[in-house]
């Protein structure tokens, strides 16, 4: 993260209260009346929806260092229920700084230079969601998995890794495929020497090759 981004995040943390959320706790949906934006410190959150039939669709993940939930702070009314179909939920135990909408908006008004960073953050989230949807439309599960791994990888020590809370079932839900399919495809990547396992965490051994395979479609 660039120094200016770190400065903004540190300023936002100073406005908030440190809080902890359990897995499956809701950070935002139509019925959730707490009005906060969040700086995610530890854990994994997702923007998702659940169909009337109970099927979950995940549009975007939020990782440590992400700024979460600021769009509803501005878009408070909608002409229909489309936006309200979405929720932001903790997909693991999470540690976050929560900032009331009013405090957040006052900070933004007092710091006009913050708008550019906020705009760039919104564009990055939008771009990630579009890339994910685009990667899924072709139906090539292997390429879609490669795209997801490059998107979700974070650099840690000397290697890129996938957040420890991304189980194969979580990845399967993100890609809209069966867990057994993810298991088979991850086995293929292991055989190719592209990924390995370190405990419960996936380690990317060859990001260059993984990226090349992902770019075949995404």
Automatic annotation (TrEMBL):
Molecular function in Gene Ontology: DNA binding
InterPro entries, A to Z: cNMP-bd_dom (IPR000595), cNMP-bd_dom_sf (IPR018490), HTH_CRP (IPR012318), RmlC-like_jellyroll (IPR014710), WH_DNA-bd_sf (IPR036390)
GO terms (BP aspect): regulation of DNA-templated transcription
Keywords on record: DNA-binding, Transcription, Transcription regulation
Keyword DNA-binding attributed: yes
Keyword DNA-binding carried by entry: yes
Ranges where the Cyclic nucleotide-binding domain occurs: 25-125
PROSITE patterns, per the entry: CNMP_BINDING_3 (PS50042)
Protein name (database record): Crp/Fnr family transcriptional regulator
Taxonomic source organism: Hungatella hathewayi
């Amino acid at each position: 993260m660039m120094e200016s981004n770190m400065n903004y995040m540190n300023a936002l943390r100073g406005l908030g209260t440190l809080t902890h959320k359990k897995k499956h706790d809701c950070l935002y949906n139509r019925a959730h009346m707490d009005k906060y934006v969040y700086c995610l410190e530890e854990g994994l959150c997702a923007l998702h929806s659940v169909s009337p039939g109970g099927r979950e669709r995940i549009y975007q993940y939020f990782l440590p260092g992400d700024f979460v939930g600021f769009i509803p702070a501005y878009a408070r009314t909608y002409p229909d229920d489309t936006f309200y179909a979405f929720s932001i939920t903790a997909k693991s135990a999470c540690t976050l700084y929560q900032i009331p909408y009013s405090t957040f908006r006052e900070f933004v008004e007092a710091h006009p230079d913050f708008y550019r960073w906020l705009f760039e953050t919104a564009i990055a989230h939008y771009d990630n969601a579009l890339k994910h949807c685009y990667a899924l439309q072709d139906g090539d599960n292997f390429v879609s998995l490669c795209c997801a791994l490059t998107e979700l990888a974070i650099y840690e020590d000397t290697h890129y890794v996938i957040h420890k809370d991304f189980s194969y079932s979580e990845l399967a839900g993100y890609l809209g495929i069966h867990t057994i399919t993810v298991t088979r495809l991850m086995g293929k990547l292991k055989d190719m020497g592209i990924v390995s396992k370190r405990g419960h965490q996936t380690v990317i051994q060859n990001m260059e090759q993984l990226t090349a395979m992902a770019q075949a479609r995404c």
